[in-house]
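Hey Z.,

So I finally got round to the adenosine-5'-diphosphate thing we talked about over coffee. Here's the setup:
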Amino acid sequence: MTTSPNTPALAIRDLTKRYGKTLAVDNITLTIPQGQFFGFLGPNGAGKSTTIHCTTGISTFTEGAIEVYGYDVQSQYRQARRQIGLSPQEFNVDIFAPLWKILDYMGGYYGMPGYDRGERIKELLKRFELEQHAQKPFGQLSGGLKRRAILARALMHDPQLLVLDEPTAGVDVELRLELWEYLRGLNKEGKTIFFTSHYLEEVQQLCERCVIIVDGTIVADDSMKNLTKGGRLEDTYLKFTRDAKNREKVGKK
Ligand code: ADP
Ligand code: MG
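And the result:
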């Protein structure tokens, strides 16, 4: 399988994921074209992180298929994973390791030679204005700097698809605006962005298309323009999530 400009950045087909008796993702199908700034929304426990975990190989699945830039995440795991830069919901780093080392480790994981790693680290530290923090242990960075550092780490191997699981959670307004500018810049350069957030006004500002997922099921998939129709995304979101919950209640009676 080779990647052409028409190959979807992400193609999820009939994905179902259970954790024991919990049905976390219930038969979802979703295709994201290259270069799209895509929003994945839903209440807590809807299945957003699970979908991301199945895509990035953190979780296994037995029903359905996922391809990233044409590579199957199960049978071509290494190539598929190589296309993805992940900013996870929970920080998974050694808090005692200095920032540069965290970046260096990620480059090593993807087989980048030492010289290339060094050059890439310099470039990313500059881009995210982290140069003066390179020697500091990750745990000593402020919340906003941690988010930037994780974004830099996700970009270390220059992936095409950025998967950002609540990258602005708990970040104050100013720092969020700053992160938006970084994300917009990356998207302009051609990166596909898979974005989850609970800040709906932020999603409305950034994303060109959204999928809303409730209890593992997709309840809306449309362009931002159609979802908002000049109004607020939050209103549309609440309508879809409430309707879905009501249908469920009726179904259970
Ligand atoms: P979201 O990211 O949308 O908040 P998640 O994907 O984290 O939702 O969770 C979806 C469902 O799967 C929830 O019911 C959650 O409790 C369950 N779940 C998620 N991860 C695990 C796990 N590792 N083990 C058991 N259940 C899990
Ligand atoms: Mg989550």
